[in-house]
Amino acid sequence: MRNTILYLCQDAGAGGREALFSRLLALYIRAEGEDAPAALAGAPLLKEEGGKPYFPEEAQTGLSISHSDGAYAVLFSPGAVGVDIQDKSDPLKTEENVLRIANRVFHPTDCLWLREGDVRTRFFLLWTAYEAAAKYTGKGIFAEEKPIVRPAREEFLPILYLGEEGMPISLERHCCTWMRDGLSFTTIWPQENFVCTCVTDVPLDAVVLSGPLGNRK
Fold first, then answer.
1. Cβ atoms within 10 Å of 5's Cβ, excluding its own
2. Would you state the pLDDT for residue 144?
């Protein structure tokens, strides 16, 4: 049975993004073991017209990539996926500014939910969910028909964090997970300043912390 795994890294390291992606792809193939499609090894990566990455020789493996202020998120799954990561410490994202962005981008129902709690915390959850959903569909975040993405319920659950070697890492960080229109949304906070949301066909199986993030105890 194939897995849906999110890889998070705070530093691309030597070789830059391409080398980082190659390393994370190798980790995913190793994690999949015998279930990994043979075509994934050394598979070229292309982009659709809208910029969505895909493996032309392995259509059954979904892929999404995001980066923000040195943090990288790479999501692999046996199906369509979308991921977005954002730095919450951005000084330009004041409450006034995020409300202006929300009124322009979000569905009115989501705007109402945003104002009912901590505005900046809920904004970044919604923003990453919108970005991830847009990557899942390939339609873009400014599509004319705006989806409702706010959590149907705020349920915070434990999530499995692993190091690169596949061993569990003890982190007291939970995820918020919910379903919308048949899609699984998962928001996690890998570090205090970052928030990351995944949109997948099936629930997320694990989060692998790579590089500096994976060195945390």
1. 21
2. 65
Confidence at residue 217, expressed as pLDDT on a 0 to 100 scale = 43
Q: Please give the structure tokens belonging to residue 57.
A: 């020789």
Cα separation, 201 vs 137, whole angstroms:
12
In contact, 199 and 137? CB cutoff 8 Å: no
Cα torsion angle, 57, 58, 59, 65, sign: negative
Amino acid at 58: E
Domains, the chain, in order of start with CATH, read 5-215 (3.90.470.20)
Q: In whole angstroms, what is the distance from residue 109 CA to residue 156 CA?
A: 21
Listing DSSP states for 111-126 in one string gives HHHHHTS-HHHHHHHH
> Over the chain (217 residues), what is each successive 10-residue block's mean pLDDT?
87 74 88 86 80 82 90 92 93 92 93 94 94 86 76 75 77 79 89 90 86 53
Q: How far apart are CA 170 and CA 175, in angstroms?
A: 14
Whole-number pLDDT of residue 169:
75
Name every residue whose Cβ is closer than 8 Å to that of residue 130 and which is 6 or more positions away in sequence: 105, 106, 141, 147, 149
